[in-house]
Backbone:
């Protein structure tokens, strides 16, 4: 499953630079699929979600850091554990039960994001 940042976030920003997919953004920040990936133009994810990779997307949270579920791979293929959770001083990076994915699905998403 993807990781989610809870409302206990203190906005320290420790998690953001650790994400290999650039899936973490500061609250109220627009984001794109192309940031930190090899995606461009119109893309359709294996889960059926579609985006234009260059288009700005609305923030998921206006108050605290957030993780874009379609970009989160729980660091599979990069690290042994989610790096956001490893560095979070208040343990607010937790599994997102609304976005459960198998390890195989997460590795496929990583390959999709990075054209592997």
Residues:
């Amino acid at each position: 499953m993807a990781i989610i940042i809870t409302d206990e976030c203190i906005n320290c920003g420790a998690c953001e630079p650790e994400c290999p997919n650039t899936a973490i953004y500061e609250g109220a920040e627009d984001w794109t699929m192309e940031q930190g990936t090899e995606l461009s133009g119109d893309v359709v994810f294996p889960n059926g979600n579609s985006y234009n990779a260059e288009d700005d997307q609305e923030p998921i949270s206006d108050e605290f850091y957030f993780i874009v579920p379609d970009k989160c791979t729980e660091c599979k293929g990069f690290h042994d554990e989610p790096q956001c959770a490893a560095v979070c001083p208040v343990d607010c990076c937790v599994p997102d039960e609304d976005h459960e994915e198998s390890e195989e699905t997460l590795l496929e998403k990583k390959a999709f994001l990075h054209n592997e």
Q: What stands out?
A: The chain is about 15% helix and 15% strand. The chain has a mean pLDDT of 96.
